[in-house]
Automatic annotation (TrEMBL):
Xref: InterPro entries: Chondroitin_lyas, DUF2264_N, UCP014753
Lineage: Bacteria, Pseudomonadati, Verrucomicrobiota, Opitutia, Puniceicoccales
Pfam families per the UniProt record, alphabetical: DUF2264
Superkingdom of origin: Bacteria
Spans through the membrane: none
Protein name: DUF2264 domain-containing protein
Domain named DUF2264: residues: 27-375
Length: 647
């Protein structure tokens, strides 16, 4: 079979003149090379993995070893492909060493007789994930790796990949990995009629997870988060590019959905390039931009290509400007830096290289409009102040230069609570503010929403399952319960939220069946080593500032006192904030008796302008009509039949 016919056209950089390669393309090459250099330093002959420092996952040692091969391999393949258009004098030795090492590592890692053997895949084993990713790398590296292997060497790797045939895959985006393995086996002559039928069946399952507006529910996870970008719109575009000739109708559907998703998706990125830390696997960082390059290649980009490149570059360079390297110089597990406590138990040292997918733009020709220097043009949803997305139950809005996600509906599978339900369950999330972890596993963090604690119990409960009833560009309403089945403790909460500038107006109607303490926490204010937190508590107002950012809560009704959840010095216990060593969370508290129903209303601010953070004056809190006055923002009138009368 002529492999040239199998290679998507956007891989081919051969016809581009070296002197025509734009600076923007070379910038991305340089970033990719800088990420490869510490990995190349770890390449040892005779070993099938890179010994990247980091925690062990809850999979097994072989899974961690394969992860430390597959993910860096995909990063290398993106960079290597780009060097066919432009090669720096520093590249030759890195390319030669890397190609030789990856070739040997793949061969000995797939050899059952080798002491470096990865072991076979099995039902629901992590190998299925990494094998699916390896297939993308093998397709990218056909010209220098796969096609250069002997027939017996190819057979060895195919036999190893074949151990994934028939395996169970988690009922979520993981089913794509099984599809890629079967597609590759078929392409390489291991064709079975059953394989095509299984691929079609898995696609039926995957497409059944599509909600609307470009969003998929991530199957058994029951969540909507950045995996829509990390996985769904990345893998679907890869399948279209590599194997889509088998079903053009499915290709069209995938491209339409990716285009629809990317229509609004730019709104999730702040001007800085950061996106809010929301959902699981945020340690993948700039992987959040994974779909843009492939969407451009496949004609599914709904915005000006240069504007998309600007967004992707801001995201990439935002994180690269942070101390995200660990001691070996490799990508660390964390957000702004290495911070293992926030990381899920399925992660290991090689896990952050899932971010390799953000380098898909390097597969575009240097003369593609994506690399144009002029970033002017439509940026899709990012130009709107707020977008209400009914399918994922999220409202994303711009507040000054930052982005806030108002979380109208969160449903996290009970199997995922071990990853931290607070990663999906907070009332809202905001770029530049991040969030804090709880002091121990029995507690739900206080920041970013309402929590409940049964009188006399140590357990703190937050949101888990949420049913939204109003998702609009200027308001949100949802119903949920705070409590747990072991204590048979439950507080029903109806929450409504409005916003103006960097302020939120939040009204809870709480029904407590047992005596309970309810707390509403502000965002967790990040405080670095060179900042000093200024706290100000004068109920009904409680606030904190680090000199450049601030948070504040103002009680309108229902709360009795204020407090803080802080770590402001080393003696306060281990670090808990995902961005900085220290933090301060302002809290309003209410004590409810058994069988008590109470309205709790507050104003929540998180911003950088201290004048905007000043307290509001109440003009009227009459039933259905509330009027507030602010020295900077002026009048704020909210009309809603649900608003109670407050004396």
């Amino acid at each position: 079979m002529d492999t040239k016919e199998l290679t998507p056209r956007f891989f081919d950089h051969a016809d581009v003149r070296r002197d025509a390669v734009p600076a923007s393309f070379r910038t991305w090459q340089n970033h990719a090379r800088s990420l490869m250099e510490p990995l190349v330093a770890l390449m040892e002959p005779g070993k099938a993995q890179l010994d990247i420092e980091g925690m062990a996952s809850d999979h097994d040692a072989n899974a961690d070893r394969l992860e430390a091969l597959a993910r860096p391999f995909v990063l290398f393949c993106h960079w290597e492909r780009s060097t066919k258009a432009y090669q720096d004098e520093r590249d030759a030795s890195l390319l030669a060493k890397s190609k030789a090492w990856f070739r040997e590592a793949l061969l000995i890692g797939s050899d059952p007789e080798s002491d470096q053997f990865f072991g076979y895949s099995a039902n629901f084993h992590q190998h299925s994930v990494e094998m699916g990713l390896l297939v993308i790398g093998l397709e990218l590296s056909r010209d220098w790796l796969w096609d250069e292997l002997s027939a017996s060497e190819r057979e060895r790797i195919l036999s190893w990949l074949e151990s994934d045939v028939g395996n169970g895959h988690h009922w979520n985006n993981h089913m794509f990995f099984g599809i890629f393995v079967l597609e590759f086996l078929q392409r390489e002559g291991r064709l079975r009629e059953a394989y095509r039928g299984v691929v079609d069946r898995w696609f039926e399952e995957l497409e059944g997870m599509y909600a609307d507006e470009g969003w998929y529910m991530d199957g058994m996870n029951q969540a909507f988060d950045f995996y829509n970008a990390y996985a769904w719109h990345y893998y679907s575009m890869w399948w279209v590019a590599l194997y889509g000739e088998s079903d053009t109708g499915r290709c069209d559907r995938f491209k339409v959905r990716t285009r629809r998703f990317l229509q609004d998706y730019p709104a999730f990125f702040a001007d800085s390039g950061e996106h809010p830390a929301f959902g699981r696997s945020i340690a993948y960082r700039f992987n959040a931009t994974a779909p843009f390059g492939l969407a451009q290649a496949m004609g599914a980009l709904p915005m000006e290509a240069a504007a998309a490149r600007g967004l992707c570059q801001r995201s990439l360079e935002f994180f690269l400007s942070k101390p995200i390297a660990q001691s070996q110089g490799c990508l660390s597990l964390g957000w702004y830096d290495e911070f293992l406590p926030m990381v899920e138990v399925y992660s290991t040292g090689g896990s952050p290289y899932w971010a390799a997918k953000a380098f898909s733009p390097l597969l575009l020709s240097p003369d593609d409009p994506f690399w144009a220097e002029d970033e002017a043009g439509s940026e899709g949803g990012s130009a709107r102040s707020a977008i209400a997305l009914k399918a994922p139950c999220l409202i994303v809005r711009k507040a000054d230069r930052e982005v806030e996600i108002i979380n109208a509906g969160s449903q996290i599978a009970s199997t995922n609570t071990r990853f931290g339900p607070h990663k999906w369950g907070r009332l809202s999330y905001k770029s530049a503010w991040g969030f804090a972890l709880a002091k121990d596993a029995s507690l739900y963090p206080f920041d970013g929403g309402l929590t409940a604690q049964k009188r006399g119990s140590e357990i703190v409960y937050g949101r888990h399952y949420t049913a939204p009833f109003s998702i609009e560009e200027d308001r949100m309403g949802c119903l949920y319960s705070l409590g747990g089945k072991l204590e048979q403790f439950q507080v029903s909460v109806e929450t409504r939220v409005w916003w103006k500038g960097n302020w939120q107006l939040i009204v809870h109607r709480a029904i407590a069946k047992d005596a309970a303490t309810l707390r509403h926490g502000s965002y967790a204010l990040p405080v670095s080593n060179d900042q000093e937190a200024r706290l100000s508590e004068s109920f009904p107002m409680v606030s904190a500032s680090n000199g450049s950012q601030g948070v504040a809560l103002y009680s309108l009704c229902g709360f009795g006192n204020a407090s803080y959840d802080n770590r402001l010095k080393e003696a306060d216990g281990p670090r808990r904030h995902i961005q900085t060593p220290f933090h301060a969370t302002a809290i309003l508290e209410a004590e409810l008796g058994a069988n008590e129903t109470r309205d709790l209303a507050l104003l929540h601010w998180a911003g950088t302008n201290e004048e905007e953070g000043q307290a509001w004056a109440v003009s009227s809190l009459s039933e259905g009509l509330w009027k507030l006055e602010h020295p900077l923002l002026g009048e704020w009138t909210v009309e809603d039949d649900s608003l109670p009368s407050v004396d």
